[in-house]
Specification:
Elements lengths: L1 E2 L11 H12 L12 H4 L1 H13 L7 E4 L2 H11 L9 E4 L4 H9 L2 H4 L2 E4 L9 H15 L5 E5 L11 H10 L3 E5 L11 H4 L3 E5 L11 E5 L36 H17 L1 H20 L4 E4 L9 E6 L4 H12 L1 E2 L1 E3 L4 H7 L6 E5 L6 H17 L3
Parallel strand pairs: 1-11, 3-4, 3-5, 5-6, 6-7
Antiparallel strand pairs: 2-8, 7-8, 9-10, 10-13, 12-13
GO molecular function: cysteine desulfurase activity; transaminase activity
Enzyme class: transferase
Catalytic activity: (sulfur carrier)-H + L-cysteine = (sulfur carrier)-SH + L-alanine
Length: 388
């Protein structure tokens, strides 16, 4: 099998990840602050925070909190942050994942803070002009300046990498909370949380960070008010039933220590391998993929051809549904890709692919040139068959 669906979850993982998870599962169970039966596993959480802080440039890495993934993290933030006075809008880009859009549209956020969508180009790019125009319209309609901007770093549909310096400068200039989704970029593209001066950042562990499913978390800057999404046992101050002075806990219940241990192993693997080297290899493979597809008649490619592009590409075959193309690739060639809207419906409106979506090809550090060549051969044969 040739696996080109790393935008959904990365596979394979480094052997060190499997070994770390297995060692944790077969060793003596331990939960942080629940008795300290195993000091090595007890320290896994703090060590993982430290390594993630190094990789993502978060100096205050103690402000990283673990969850089950990006969806829980985003729900925690969007349902718990203080978005200012009632009526102040929240800006979210057209490229966002449903882990952003659904909490905004279905929770109490929308009732008190109208959601304004910042339009993107057909490649997924968010421009400063689009941000300015949306902020201006929201201010005129509501009579109040928006309070927050939510933007993903790298599109999970087109792979477009946003200009985060521009977005961060815009947020600071307009006194907006900056909430960034780095689920598709963490581990394969440089992330600079401190440089962006981000107020909150969300990540998942099972994509390019090379951890297992059910892991992820968020970072929130010191001084930002956030009510927790969940309440429960923390193993400390158990006599205190009501949090005092906003001293909330964001990691309640039994932590996923095997998952966090695997995430630690994946993060260490990236740091040891070198993020620059990982990015260069993936850029080379994406160039090979893009240039190869350009030579095939009957294929539509979406996204940026070069430069601001992560390890994700969307495409379609003329005259063939994306779902049918994915089935043919899997059943006829043993190649796994992803078809559909990829949980990001609004960007497809900009791309003109809202009816059926796209075929998404996404690579990882473990993808080889032979995998790309095999995909190009299959794509060429499928495109040619459609012309008969």
């Amino acid at each position: 099998m040739i696996y080109l669906n790393n935008g959904a979850t990365s596979w394979p993982k480094p052997s060190c990840v499997y070994e770390a998870v297995q060692a944790c599962l077969t060793g003596t169970p331990a939960s942080q602050f629940r008795g300290g039966s195993d000091i090595l596993k007890k320290d896994a959480e703090e060590l993982c925070r430290e390594k993630l802080g190094k990789l993502l440039n978060i100096s205050d890495y103690h402000r990283i909190f673990f969850t089950s993934g990006a969806t829980e993290s985003m729900n925690t933030l969007l349902c718990g942050l203080n978005f200012g006075e009632e009526g102040q809008a929240v800006l979210a880009t057209q490229t966002e994942h449903n882990s952003v859009l659904r909490p905004l549209m279905n929770q109490s956020v929308k009732n008190t803070h109208p959601v304004w969508i910042v339009p993107c180009g057909n490649d997924g790019a968010i421009t400063e002009q689009a941000l300015e125009n949306t902020l201006k319209k929201a201010t005129e309609i509501t009579g109040k300046k928006p309070s927050a901007l939510i933007i993903n770093h790298c599109s999970n549909v087109t792979g477009y990498i946003q200009d985060m310096k521009m977005a961060a400068d815009f947020a600071r200039k307009n006194n907006l909370l900056l909430i960034t989704d780095i689920s598709q970029s963490a581990g394969c593209i440089p992330v600079d949380v401190d440089g962006w001066n981000a107020d909150a950042v969300v990540f998942t562990g099972h994509k390019s960070l090379l951890g297992i499913q059910g892991t992820g978390g968020f970072y929130i800057r010191e001084g930002i008010s956030l009510k927790p999404l969940k309440y429960g046992g923390t193993g400390r101050n158990s006599q205190q039933l009501i949090y005092e002075n906003g001293d909330y806990e964001y990691e309640v219940g039994t932590q996923n220590i095997p998952g966090i241990t695997g995430l630690l192993a994946g993060t260490e693997y990236i740091l040891q391998t070198g993020l620059d080297w990982i990015q260069k290899k993936e850029e080379m493979l994406m160039d090979l993929l893009y240039e190869g597809l350009k030579k095939i008649d009957g294929i539509q490619i979406y996204g940026s051809p070069k430069g601001r592009r992560g390890p994700v590409l969307s495409m379609n075959f003329d005259g063939l549904k994306a779902s049918d193309a994915a089935y043919i690739l899997e059943s006829g060639y043993g190649i796994t890709v992803r078809a559909g809207l990829h949980c990001s419906p609004l960007i497809h409106q900009a791309m003109g692919t809202e009816n059926g979506g796209t075929v998404r090809v996404s690579i990882s550090w473990f993808t080889g040139e032979k995998d790309i060549q095999a995909f190009l051969t299959a794509a060429g044969q499928i495109a040619a068959s459609l012309k008969r």
